[in-house]
Design a protein that fits this description.
One of its GO terms (biological process) is acylglycerol catabolic process. Keywords: Membrane, Transmembrane, Transmembrane helix. This is Pimeloyl-ACP methyl ester carboxylesterase. The strands form 2 sheets. Strands 2, 3, 4, 5, 6, 7, 8, 10 and 11 form a 9-stranded mixed sheet that branches. A two-stranded antiparallel sheet has the order 1-9. Helices cover 45% and strands 16% of the residues. It has 2 domains: 39 residues; 285 residues, Alpha/Beta hydrolase fold, catalytic domain (Rossmann fold, 3-Layer(aba) Sandwich), CATH 3.40.50. By secondary structure, it is an alpha/beta fold. Strand 2 and strand 3 form a beta hairpin.
Length: 331
């Protein structure tokens, strides 16, 4: 009887172990399946589907209709891909060095619709779709570090006929412009930064937390619209063509770029071109006051100004004032 009981207990334990092994095996299969489904081995940015690409292109073209008509469309081949630029003729002095406008993350040339009319009063303007972001530029090689970010833009400037270019960057475009001035300043006449991110201050904890849900491609459109509106301090975005383009890009395009690294104070001090920093006093993306202080402290040839009531979308809120500041600065 005792031996029978021992065998029963042994059988029960072995059955239990087999159950645990089966459960562990099932869990392993599920884990591998999830990892496989979520894997993203692509080394360069891409649109997730033909339908998503077409939706973005439709929104892009609709937003481009709000810009003046470009007199030239350029596709510049670089070592990292083909970069789309538009040229707009302006000003009265054809010899004046042009501006090159760099948009923020998940946006493209149409983001400058409000700024072009006033900027074109003083000189010619190029706009660019950043490589590796949703737009008409086509990334063809991984961009793995700050040097690579600078290199493709440097190659774009080398391809342009003008000997000197003034860079104007908003948000992440500000980081891109300053990164070029740090690493490859040839042909850079000056740099204008409109509430640049990750140049003089880190991102706020709130923007990091809010960006996580909208980074999920299957998140509802309302989440992305809400995030865009939040960065503009509550401005409505539902009927704004450029906002629809940004939302479509966030949903349709997978960005595969190295994380932007903040330049050190020594690197900022070593920048040998004039830099105009226009901070948004009510920006939710970072501490604008601390950023302005660091810019004043570190830049050897810097001019710092704060628009006290501006949100991070200051380029659309104060286009005429910004154009006047830029014109006076580059002149």
């Amino acid at each position: 009887m005792v031996m029978k009981r021992v065998r029963q207990v042994g059988d029960s334990l072995r059955a239990h172990r087999r159950g645990l092994l089966r459960a562990a095996a099932a869990l392993a299969v599920i884990t591998v399946a999830i990892a496989y489904a979520l894997r993203d081995p692509a080394p360069i940015g891409y649109f997730t589907s033909t339908e998503s690409h077409d939706r973005f292109v439709g929104a892009y073209r609709e937003a481009m209709a709000d810009l003046p008509e470009p007199d030239r469309t350029l596709d510049v081949r670089t070592g990292y891909g083909v970069v789309r630029l538009y040229h707009f003729s302006g000003g009265t002095d054809p010899a004046a060095a042009p501006l090159l406008l760099l948009p923020g993350r998940a946006s493209a040339s149409p983001v400058w619709a409000d700024n072009l009319p006033s900027l074109l009063r003083s000189r010619n303007v190029y706009t660019v779709d950043l490589l590796g972001e949703p737009g008409m530029s086509i990334q063809q090689r991984p961009i793995k570090n700050t040097a690579a970010h600078a290199q493709w833009l440097h190659e774009v400037l080398l391809a342009l006929p003008e000997p000197t270019i003034h860079l104007v960057g908003v948000s992440f475009g500000g980081w891109t412009a300053m990164n070029l001035a740090v690493h490859r300043p040839q042909k850079v006449g000056s740099v204008v930064l409109l509430d640049p991110v990750l140049v003089f201050a880190g991102l706020s904890a709130e923007v990091v937390l809010r960006s996580i849900p909208v980074s999920v491609r299957w998140a509802p459109r309302s989440w992305r619209d809400s995030f865009t509106s939040w960065t503009a301090n509550g401005a409505p975005v539902e009927d704004v063509p450029v906002a629809r383009m940004i939302e479509a890009g966030m949903q349709a395009y997978v960005v595969k770029l190295s994380a932007p690294a903040r330049p050190s104070e020594d690197q900022l001090a070593a920048v040998d071109v004039p830099v105009l920093v226009l901070m948004a006093g009510k920006s939710r993306l970072h501490d604008a006051g601390e950023a302005a202080k660091l810019a004043e402290r570190s830049l050897t040839h810097g001019t710092v100004k704060t628009y006290p009531d501006a949100s991070h979308a200051l380029n659309g809120e104060y286009p005429n004032e910004i154009a006047a500041d830029i014109s006076a600065f580059v002149t």
